[in-house]
Amino acid sequence: MKSLLLLPVLLLALLSTIHLLPEAGAMADSAVSLELPDDMSSWRMRNIPASADELAILAQDTKFAKAICLSPRPGEIDMATGYHVPDRIDLSIVLSGHDLNNSIHRPERCMPSQGHVISNSKDFEIELPNGRQIKVRRLLSVQSLPVNEERTEYVSYNCITYYFFVGHHRITQDHLKRTLWDMKDRLLLGMDQRWAYVSASMWYGKVPWIEQEISDEEADAKLREFLTRLAEKQIDWEMIPQ
């Protein structure tokens, strides 16, 4: 019983020592690329800037690659414009600067400020076409967005979000594991590395521009397919040992 009570204390003490570890000088780059393709399979990427909140909160040398990704829904045409009705995935890659603690963090920490109420969290392993696997975390949430400047009226959407972290030679969905790896690599290898946080999210249920409701199974399958293509293309797999 005493050992169980001591475990949180020991863990807290261990985490607090990260600031005492030696500085490693130059940082090792993340294995993920911030250069997004214009398109990927049926998905067309429209690059967007980081939000004012992200720029204000995160360290100045944090880098971003963000995009609204659209893919035509087969057989669904907007009669007003003549264009295909698209599915939409919001993609975000955030690359840490030298101050890792002020560059990236678990999305569970910042999503509530974006209107999300998270109801479920679960880890999965995704198989890539190149034979590799990545572990990802899936969050289910309801996102409420204001529809007027006074923020007195809101509209809510069901949302699925997947995320994972990519370091210099490791990939994980676990923020604590990433922190412990950082401590180990700095202490034993003298290596400080940049981590990238990769997330992709999609609304489901009733979406304003789509007449037919999207099931959670459909949204989940499209997000997984999107992530398999993205991870294979954007990650330098020669840097990640098998």
Q: Mean pLDDT score, rounded?
A: 86
Distance between the termini: 39 Å
Task: Indicate the proportion of strand residues.
Answer: 35-45%
Largest sheet at a glance?
Answer: 9 strands, antiparallel
Which word captures the global form?
A: globular
* Backbone structural class: alpha+beta
Number of strands: 11
The helix content, as a percent range, equals 10-25%
Give the low-pLDDT segments. Answer: 1-7, 9-15, 17-24
How many distinct helices? 5
Order of helices and strands: HEEEHEEHEEEEHEEH
Taking all Cα atoms into account, the compactness measure Rg is 20 Å
What do you see in this structure?
By secondary structure, this protein is α+β, with helices and mostly antiparallel strands. It has a domain at 26-112 and 164-239. Helix content is 24%, strand content 37%. It has helices at 2-16, 52-57, 107-110, 175-189, 216-234, and strands at residues 27-28, 39-40, 43-48, 63-77, 84-95, 116-127, 133-146, 154-166, 171-172, 192-193, 196-204. Strands 2, 3, 4, 5, 6, 7, 8, 9 and 11 form a nine-stranded antiparallel sheet that branches. The radius of gyration is 20 Å and the shape is globular.
